[in-house]
User: Fold this.
Amino acid sequence: DAGVIQSPRHEVTEMGQEVTLRCKPISGHNSLFWYRQTMMRGLELLIYFNNNVPIDDSGMPEDRFSAKMPNASFSTLKIQPSEPRDSAVYFCASSFGQRNTIYFGEGSWLTVV
Amino acid sequence: DAKTTQPPSMDCAEGRAANLPCNHSTISGNEYVYWYRQIHSQGPQYIIHGLKNNETNEMASLIITEDRKSSTLILPHATLRDTAVYYCIVKGRKEFYFGTGTSLTVIP
Assistant:
């Protein structure tokens, strides 16, 4: 079975540009999570969805970040405008039920120059 | 959710058992102990979880003390591919929050 699929795997963009990261959760999973990982802050939970509805976005750093889940098989994390401090690895994860074991994708490596 | 304390780093000889400790003295009755690992440049990988009883799967064993205040993840025969950061997480109602983990290095 396919795991969580993220795209792009790597992106380099210039400061001020819009960045869109994409995630396809594991089929049948109804909870989806976006994490960010940096050397300084480790793995941080940004936002999670249950049945396509955002439940907790308290980890979203600021208004430049937004996330959507238009259907059960697709989610996006958008940064507009991007800044160098947004450079990080962004992970998407999914689970069946928000309290159960979560499975991660391979991450999207973002560099903002 | 209860916080966890792990040593920042450990070494283990290849072929030997790797025993990774985790303290979670404030764990409550309905909170599970989860272990994940993250190999460099990859997403975190689920290993095992348990509530009270010891658990074993094809990857590892999880030993939880009777008072549940600590646990140990055991990799029975460590290989070089087990070099990774290992995260111990206590999870109840809230979501998975990752600490700094233990960086395990398996030495040839």
Summary: Chain B has a mean pLDDT of 92. Strands of chain B lie at 9-13, 18-23, 32-38, 45-50, 55-56, 61-64, 70-75, 84-91, 102-107. The radius of gyration of chain B is 13 Å.
